[in-house]
Fold each of these.
Amino acid sequence: DIQVTQSPSSLSSSVGDTVTITCRTSQKINSYLNWYQQKSGKAPKLLIYGALSLQNGVPSRFRGTGSGTEFSLTITSLEPEDFATYYCQQTYTAPRAFGQGTMVELK
Amino acid sequence: QVQLQESGPGLVRPSGTLSLTCDVSGGAVGSTNWWTWVRQPPGKALEWIGEIYHLGTTNSAPSLQGRVGMSIDKPGNQFSLTLTSLTAADTGIYYCARAKGVTRNLDSWGQGLPVIVSS
């Protein structure tokens, strides 16, 4: 199975800050990496797919980069609605595991 | 826009079997997508359970040790999950989702169904 390691587990930031979340996989997965945002009590929402592509309707301040085994999600100029938990998921092969999540909290 | 809705019992007994259904609207389960189950224990991360294709092909998490069954009902436009030999560790919110395209990104989700395993 491919292991997915996401870091940090949490971070504290302010509105207007830029934050970066990293996801590493135990094997190369090309660009089969997706990013999701989850708010408390809600279903996850797709942000980035194929490591780089922005899902329709997602603001351009969300950017995905990386390929192979190392990937990042960068949120530029945090807005109040961006404080949430973020997950990566590898979809290269089954089981299509998620990372452990990163909680982005208001400082 | 495709919409998904989970249904099933909210409380199940230990050692029992959980059966959940996901109703799909705005799209056909017979389309070229995979249909996925994800769960989330209280306060914990998302866990991929498994996926089913409209032709019946399935993949599931080895960690669930063969306790998982999945099926698809094209006339009813729904798909289902069965999880046997339940323990308290199976408590959580269960989501169904559509895995779209080559990247199998989960672009549409149900609202989630809370399930408690308790006597």
Note: The interface with chain A takes residues 36, 38, 45-48, 50-51, 59-63, 95, 97, 99, 101, 103-107, 109-112 of chain B (CB under 8 Å).
Amino acid sequence: KAGVTQTPRYLIKTRGQQVTLSCSPISGHRSVSWYQQTPGQGLQFLFEYFSETQRNKGNFPGRFSGRQFSNSRSEMNVSTLELGDSALYLCASSLDWENSYEQYFGPGTRLTVT
Amino acid sequence: LAKTTQPISMDSYEGQEVNITCSHNNIATNDYITWYQQFPSQGPRFIIQGYKTKVTNEVASLFIPADRKSSTLSLPRVSLSDTAVYYCLVPRASGSARQLTFGSGTQLTVLP
């Protein structure tokens, strides 16, 4: 079974621009979560989607948004990029969201904002 | 939201048992505690999850006391390849929402 894939793997953007990251979950997994990882803040939860609905959201500004499609693929968007948005963005998929946190992570997208 | 606390780093020797504890409160009532392992330049990898008492699989054991305010990951007979960062994941109740909160991570270094 193919694992979680994320595209692109690396991205360089300029302050003020916007960016869209993509995540394809493991086949059959319906829940997708997004995390931001930085050396200073560690792994921080962004949001979680199940059946095209955002189920939970972390403490990030409205510039961070996401969506999930009917095939469970997910995208996240960051608008008006700031230098502090430079991070590794990780996507994780799981069978469901209610009680199981056996998540499978992708390799991440390394975003650099200059 | 309350804080999740893990030791920043631990050193061990090959063949020893390693125990890493994660302290947390305000865990959502019906949710599991999960542990992950992360190597450099990779996403975290699921190790084990549990709700209470003790859970064991082929790679680790997880001990959770009755009050569920902490959990301890136990790695038996570690090897050099177990050098990695270990995270606990605790679902936190915040009003009607639930946030998936990772601990700050414990860098385990296994020495020969």
Note: The longest strand of chain B covers residues 84-94.
